[in-house]
């Protein structure tokens, strides 16, 4: 077949009818999973009042969802390649809806952590399937860039729009409503997806290696747990043991993949400099965005004393910026270059985080909205272009595994953003001076979390309660400013690294 005939055939395949409606279904799935990663941010004060978790439990409630997703994405992406991506997506959607009910009606911190972990298992079946199906539905590179742009906009905007969704619901319902909203969306996804989505799988998949699945999950979760706990409590023997187990598990996983005829993840992909650079940029983009949104939600409610809806509206510009750049990311990357687009996006997000180092109780809405718009725009641009790079560097039969790498970076970035930046915030926050005369048990509750301090202040005499709350708010603000400075530094360093690693990289 001549090259011209091949090109015509490729373009005809890339224009199969119904592909954009199928994309809409996939975007619905990724939007919901992304929203669920951050929607809990605004509900945290209400959840704290109801379930009374400790500071550590509160961090686990916030990030165990992303930990579990990150640990299982590679395995689930590979499973989708084997049993069918549509089948895995729809099965996961049903499970996601069912487990959402368990989250909504959790009655203890331990039950909430378990429910969030199970939601992560279900979420891990959704994310890689969506991007892999896009790779197999859109064969024309330019159309695929548009489709990935829409997908990336939904993923980036979902993380930013979560607080707004939470704000609307919390203004009218109890905190469990932020999970029940998943049910009607998942029902639509399953019913419409059954009719519109094409099935695709690797024609010669080979067996699914269960030992690799276990090694991936244990290694990822243990490493992230060790990092999070060490940042809060320092080095202890149990934390060191978790780190050793995690690193050993990941090394064993990587070595095992090189010996299998049908690996869960082809480690040779990382020999491609552009692929590795895109994954790195992907991870740190979401680390910055997720950490920013999660702790800004608490700052707006518990320091500036805004309503959940008011806080969500202030954070909306991040979603608008992410959608705006996500939709045109492919055009920008082709007219300039991949490395200019990614580096520019990382730098913009770093500048937004740097602006947060100047926040205080009197910071204006205009300044916060401007910083969030710039940060969202940067995240949308960098994340979308890196996702396109990751997809375009692998053959389509490996789309699930490659998509899983992209999604693992996304979820691991989200988890680390909350865990590491949260550890900085918590470590500084706990050092505030409690006014004299406050009972010992009240001091413990107040230093556990800002939500706890707010509750304790209500039970104290007016003057003493006001002094306690002011000290706690000041300490939290200092912690948030420091964490934002750390994140900004990391983003700027990542931008420089991406500039060199993505040299010469082009979109497919």
From TrEMBL:
Gene3D superfamilies with a match to the protein in the record: MFS general substrate transporter like domains, Multidrug resistance protein D
PROSITE patterns cross-referenced by the UniProt entry: MFS (PS50850)
Transmembrane segments: 20-46, 58-76, 88-107, 113-134, 146-166, 172-196, 208-228, 234-254, 275-296, 316-333, 340-359, 365-391, 412-432, 483-502
GO cellular component annotations of the record: plasma membrane
Annotated GO biological process: response to antibiotic
Topology with respect to the bilayer: Multi-pass membrane protein
Highest taxon, organism lineage: Bacteria
Cell location: Cell membrane
Alphabetized UniProt keyword annotations: Antibiotic resistance, Cell membrane, Membrane, Transmembrane, Transmembrane helix, Transport
All copies of domain Major facilitator superfamily (MFS) profile, residue ranges: 22-506
Entry-linked InterPro entries: MFS, MFS_dom, MFS_trans_sf
SUPFAM superfamilies: MFS general substrate transporter
GO-annotated molecular function: transmembrane transporter activity
Identification of the protein by name: MFS transporter
Species, as recorded: Streptomyces boluensis
């Amino acid at each position: 077949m001549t090259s011209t005939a091949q090109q015509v055939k490729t373009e005809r395949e890339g224009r199969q009818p119904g592909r954009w409606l199928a994309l809409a279904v996939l975007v619905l799935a990724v939007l919901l999973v992304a929203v669920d990663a951050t929607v809990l941010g605004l509900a945290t004060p209400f959840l704290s009042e109801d379930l009374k978790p400790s500071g550590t439990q509160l961090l686990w409630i916030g990030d165990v969802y992303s930990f579990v997703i990150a640990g299982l994405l590679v395995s689930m992406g590979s499973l989708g390649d084997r049993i069918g991506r549509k089948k895995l997506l729809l099965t996961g959607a049903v499970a996601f809806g069912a487990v959402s009910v368990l989250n909504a009606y959790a009655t203890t911190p331990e039950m909430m952590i378990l429910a969030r972990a199970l939601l992560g298992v279900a979420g891990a079946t959704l994310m890689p399937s969506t991007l892999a199906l896009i790779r197999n539905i859109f064969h024309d590179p330019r159309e695929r860039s548009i489709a990935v742009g829409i997908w990336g906009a939904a993923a980036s905007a979902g993380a930013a729009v979560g607080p707004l969704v939470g704000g609307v619901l919390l203004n009218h319902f109890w905190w469990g409503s932020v999970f029940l909203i998943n049910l009607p969306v998942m029902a639509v996804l399953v019913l419409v997806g059954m009719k519109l989505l094409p099935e695709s799988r690797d024609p010669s998949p080979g067996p699914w290696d269960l030992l690799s699945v276990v090694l991936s999950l244990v290694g990822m979760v243990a490493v992230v747990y060790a990092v999070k706990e060490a940042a809060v409590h320092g080095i202890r023997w149990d934390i060191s043991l978790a780190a050793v187990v995690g690193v050993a598990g990941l090394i064993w996983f990587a070595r095992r993949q090189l010996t299998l005829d049908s690996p869960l993840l082809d480690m040779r992909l990382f020999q491609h400099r552009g692929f590795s650079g895109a994954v790195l940029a992907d991870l740190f983009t979401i680390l910055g965005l997720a950490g920013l949104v999660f702790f800004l939600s608490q700052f707006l409610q518990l320091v500036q004393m805004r309503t959940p809806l008011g806080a969500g509206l202030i954070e909306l510009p991040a979603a608008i910026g992410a959608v705006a750049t996500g939709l045109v990311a492919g055009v920008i990357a082709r007219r300039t270059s991949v490395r200019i687009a990614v580096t520019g996006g990382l730098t913009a997000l770093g500048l937004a985080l740097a602006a947060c180092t100047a926040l205080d109780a009197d910071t204006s809405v205009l300044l916060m909205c401007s910083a969030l718009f710039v940060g969202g725009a940067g995240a949308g641009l960098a994340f979308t272009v890196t996702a396109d790079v990751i997809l375009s560097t692998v053959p389509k039969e490996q789309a699930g595994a490659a998509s899983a790498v992209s999604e693992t970076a996304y979820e691991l970035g989200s988890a680390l953003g909350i865990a590491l930046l949260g550890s900085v915030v918590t470590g500084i926050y706990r050092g505030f001076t409690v006014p004299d005369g406050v009972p010992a048990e009240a001091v413990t509750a107040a230093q556990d979390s800002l939500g706890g301090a707010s509750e304790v202040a209500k039970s104290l005499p007016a003057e003493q309660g006001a002094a306690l709350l002011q000290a706690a708010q000041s300490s939290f603000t200092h912690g948030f400013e420091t964490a934002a400075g750390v994140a900004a530094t990391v983003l700027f360093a990542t931008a420089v690294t991406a500039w060199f690693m993505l040299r010469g990289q082009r979109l497919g």
